[in-house]
Amino acid sequence: MHIQQPVNDWPNALLKMPDYSVVKSVDNPSLLREAKQRWAAAGRDPAKLWTIYRHFNVHTAPRSNWNNALDHWRRMYARWVDATYLREYASYVDFVSESNEYTSDTTWASPEEKFFALQNVRAAAHVWRNDYQGKTVQSADGGQGLIPESCRLALLAGTVANTIPREVFEIALTFDYPIDYHAYTFYPGGVRAADDWANHSGRWDRHERQYGLKPRWLFGESGPYVDRGGGWRVCLGGDENRLVTAMQAWWRDCATTAAYREGRLIGAGCWFTSGGASLGWPDYELETPQLINLADALRPMWRPGVLAPPVPPAPAKIIDVSRHQGVINWDRVKAAGVETVIIRATMGATGVDSEYARNWRNSAVAGISHRGMYHYVITEDSATAQVANIRAVTHDDFGNEPLTLDCEPRSDEGVFSQLQRQAYTFKIRQMLDLLAVHTRVRIYTRASAWVWLTTLPAWAEGVVDWFAHYNTAVLAPDLPPGVTTWKRWQYSFTGQVAGIDTNVDLNRDNAAPAPPPTGELTMTQRQVVEKKHDEIWVALNPKVKAANPCGLYYSPGGALIRTLTDGRTMDVFNKAGPWLLVTQAPNPIFWVKQTEVIQL
Questions:
Q1: Of 456, 458, 465, which Cα lies nearest the Cα of 422?
Q2: pTM of this prediction?
């Protein structure tokens, strides 16, 4: 929660929040002391509640030299690190903020502005670490007290929908300080924008994957918005149920990130704002009843650092449709329990599904909860032309499901040569990169089709996650080499759904296996759980180093091919008990024994 002025009974909402939640106070550190004390009095571990203090009256360093920037930040911190703060509050504060929302894309586009913005971040971090963090401080008003070593500076307070450059990541990792990003979710017209995660509430994750750097993250402000004056009371019409649903959708997206799995998220966002109505933010105001509703929704699903994040229940029915299903009665489809539909929109550079517009419009009118579109990739057409076709037909309205690229060979296509597989793989990667700034993207295929069409790229893991495999006697679809997990399984192409006169594809989403209510696990269930444990190991250890010696094998338990003695670092793609599937590009893929590698 984000408190500008205390609202009635706010501690009641606090105590309903899960462990590893966060409370932020603006200009009133006594609220953070009270939060920690009430948390502890309720028998909860104060180390599992993070507190953030932001002093309102600080600003960025002037455009000058490094020494002047350091002097500036010494003056800024001295404004609020006084005798009272040192005596009463310092021991209850985990993070402090620097300046607020002082950068944008235009800042980083200008070499001069970028230089001074980065100098400001470095100077603020340098002074806090060297003059305050873990130090006994003498304040200007004669006070003396210790700033805990654990109290770190939150960097940047970056404005939503704006870039965070690589240099800020590097500063954060150098000082071991988190980056503060204001992760508002974009709801124009009351509907979450298709590019919200890519460009708004999840832009931080996009940059993390782009740079390959892994700082800690703190979301100093969060919640649905449409513009500066359009918080949840405007963009969601003040509907508290829609507010909870919107926040749950964002939390679920956060739970899919590496930062969540690795325990690098500091709380589930500071929900903006409580007590801020009189300060100019009435459309964002959250009072205690809304805070309690959000805490109740967050509590069962927020487990940062757990490698198997919570999985929402699978919808009753998931179908995908095209013109081949004819004219669909969407009201009957909705009544039949269908909650998710993926609708074909486009094919190649110019193809448009003749039923797309009707299906897209009428499925929304019928109230289908989850809607998305898919595009059939045509081998001969360029990536840019196909992406242009997608955007022209959909007008960037992709619904609330990831945009799906259908990667399957046509019946008239022969066996691909190595050169053709390379070209197809490069084309798909181009399309992913071009589309990623507009929406989330996934790939649908069959295991055999992916082997047929591509060079089995390493980036497929987590992107190629929807598979067709028509055998319900198995527990999961077949996966191609290099892919170890699936999220959606098309298990039938002969399904029957009221409102559709033809056969229709049926799908189910992956959910973590649950043991039976009583008794031991069956052999099948034990195998599934063991596979999940192997997947978790791979997620935790994406790279290993070859010991000396380290044998290479074509298959687990197979013949030894050769032995490594160079201590090379290798990417881990899969695990099967004591065996790891590894590679170091451009070398081929081999299996190694887990006992013959070093975890990094």
A1: 456
A2: 0.58
